[in-house]
Amino acid sequence: MVLPKGKRNNTHMNKSQESDARGFYKNLLLIVEEEKRRISRDLHDETGQIVIALGASLNIIEKELKEGNIDRAIDLINGSRTSIQEIASRMKSMAFTLRPPGLDILGLGAVLREYFSQSTKSSSIKIEFRENLADTKLDKDVEIALYRIIQEAIYNILKHSHAKKVDIDLIVNNRELQVIIRDDGIGFDIEEYKSQNDLTGLGLRGIKERVDILDGTFSIESILGKGTVLKINLPLD
User: For residue 235, what are the β-bridge partners?
Assistant: First the structure.
C-alpha cells in the first residue's frame, strides 16, 4: 500500500521530531549527571574532610575529659565550634551555587557579581565583569542556563588554568546575547583538544550541552602560555 503524499510527509516529520526529542532529553540527562557529579565532588571536597576531622576531634575530647584534662578539652571544643561554623559557611555557599536565591529578584547581573565576589575571596584570582542587561528581560530558563555556563567556566579556570585574571563580558546586541570569558592562564593545545573531541576532561561538556539546548553557538580558543578565550552566542528570540 502506498501512502498519500501528505501522509508520507507527516510520517517523516514525526520521525524527525522524535529524533530531536530524543537528542534533547539525552542532553538534559547529561547535564543532570554533570550536576550530580558536581554536587558529589563539592560535598567531598568542601565538607567531607572537615566532618572527618571533626569526628576525630570529638574522640580526642572524650579521651581528654575521661583523663580529667578539662582545659585541653575546652580548647578542642572551641576548635570544633570553629569547624562547625566553617561547614555552615561552605554549605551556604553550595546552596547559593546550586540555585542563587536572588536570581528571580535581583537578576542575573547582580547574582553573578555576588558569585564572582565569593570566588575571588577563596582564591587570588581577579575577575572583571562587564554587562549591559539592565534593559533586557531574560527568560528564567536562559538566566539559570547562563549562570550554570559561567559558573562551570570559572570553576574550570580556577582548577586548571593557574590564571591571575579573568575578563567576562555578558553583552546583549541586536537580539543576541554574547558571552566572552578570557583568562591569562597557562592555556592548552587546542589542536590536541579538537583531535580528541573530548569535552569531559576539560569540564566543557556541560557548557556545550546547555548552549546546544538554547540553540546557541560555542567556541573555544587557547594558546599555550597565553590563556584561553571562551565565546558563546545565544539568540534571544
Answer: 176
Q: What is the pLDDT of residues 68-122, one digit of tens each?
A: 999 988 988 888 888 888 777 777 666 666 667 777 778 899 989 988 988 888 7
Please give the sequence-ordered ranges of beta strands (E in DSSP) within 87-153, or none if there are none.
Answer: 126-131
Q: Cell 579521651, residue?
A: 63
Domain ranges of the chain: 6-96, 101-235
Identify residue 24 by its one-letter amino acid code. F
Distance (Å, rounded) from C-alpha 236 to C-alpha 228?
Answer: 26
Model confidence pTM above 0.70: no
Which residues make Cβ contacts (< 8 Å) with residue 77, sequence separation at least 6?
61
**β-strands 176-183, 227-235 pairing:** antiparallel
Is it true that domain 101-235 has CATH number 3.30.565.10? yes
Residue that is written with C-alpha cell 503524499 in the block? 5
